[in-house]
Amino acid sequence: MDIWCDIGSGGGLPALVLAILAAGEGALTNFILIESDTRKCAFLTTMITEFGLRATVVSKRIEDAEPLEADVVSARALAPLPKLLDLAVRHAKPGGLFLLQKGAQHENEIDAARDSWHFNHECVRSQTHADAVVLKIKEVVRV
Fold first, then answer.
1. How far apart are CA 41 and CA 60, in angstroms?
2. Contacts with 89 (C-beta within 8 Å, 6 or more apart), sequence order
3. Prediction pTM value
4. Order of strands across the sheet with 55-58?
5. Which of 8, 15, 28, 120 keeps 20 to 30 A from 68, CA to CA?
């Protein structure tokens, strides 16, 4: 059974959509959404219950949540990549995959992250915005 951790889940994008799609496919992935805003947590919990999703909400700051050993860690519009990797790495299992949505400055963020991190990455172009990408990052090691 895979664990997918979405950090800074906000209103549930992409985690709720992915959990709905996974449920439709019969996947056994457990989604864990980390969000510190209690109002957003209440919304996320309601949506998870209403749709009967394999998901839970952790109502804590990302850095205060227990490490999750997730197979996949995702985030959208949360922080610049160097800071984002600091937050995300503690929730991934060794060899985990990071799927991080980034905007027009993604190349600059990748360069800045290389000061503190070694990693392999692939940029997957967004289908909804010409300047946006999803960074698929693997083999992350702090320098």
1. 9
2. 140, 142
3. 0.96
4. 55-58, 30-34, 3-7, 70-76, 92-102, 133-142, 117-125
5. 120
